[in-house]
Write a structure and sequence with these properties.
about 160 residues; Serine Threonine Protein Phosphatase 5, Tetratricopeptide repeat; disordered C terminus
């Protein structure tokens, strides 16, 4: 853990796979807070930021923490989907309510309101072009998020999926 939280650590500024993403995936709020305090970039991790992972999983505590630390709710994943859309598609109304006020209105959502984004997500889930994307958690499960990472072990949390 010392290496992960050392200020200006190269590990903290890694672009794709970050300790902050691993802590978020593991739903370790303590780990997320420690890494942010140590200077982790809350917007790193293209194509999925820690905020995107928290939205996928419905981790409202992590979403609040990341937003408080300056995470940008308008950073899209590769297909242009932003965290509030993913939260709505996943059916996490509380996440939608947290992310909505900090998300720039999307032209593709005709009724820009919490109810409107929720309705849009229902239509998106049932459409053939997006139906396969509705289960984001399974899409980004194990191989991308350190299945054997020492990060998860050090943070002392178990990840979803029963690792």
């Amino acid at each position: 853990m010392e290496l992960l939280i050392k200020p200006n650590s190269a590990v903290l500024s890694a672009h794709t796979h970050t300790p902050l993403k691993a802590a978020t995936y593991a739903h370790s709020l303590k780990g997320v807070e420690l890494l942010i305090k140590a200077g982790a970039d809350v917007n790193a991790g293209h194509p999925l930021t820690a905020l995107m992972l928290a939205a996928i999983a419905g981790y409202t505590d992590c979403i609040k923490c990341l937003l408080k630390a300056g995470a940008d709710a308008n950073i899209p994943e590769n297909n242009g989907t932003v965290p509030v859309e993913i939260a709505a598609i996943q059916g996490c109304q509380e996440c939608v309510e947290i992310l909505f006020p900090v998300t720039t209105p999307l032209a593709r959502v005709a009724d820009w309101s919490i109810g409107g984004i929720t309705q849009y997500a229902k239509l998106t889930r049932s459409s053939t072009s997006m139906g396969k994307r509705a289960d984001f958690w399974n899409l980004f499960h194990a191989p991308m998020i350190y299945p054997t990472s020492s990060c998860l072990c050090c943070l002392g949390s178990s990840a979803p999926g029963g690792w």
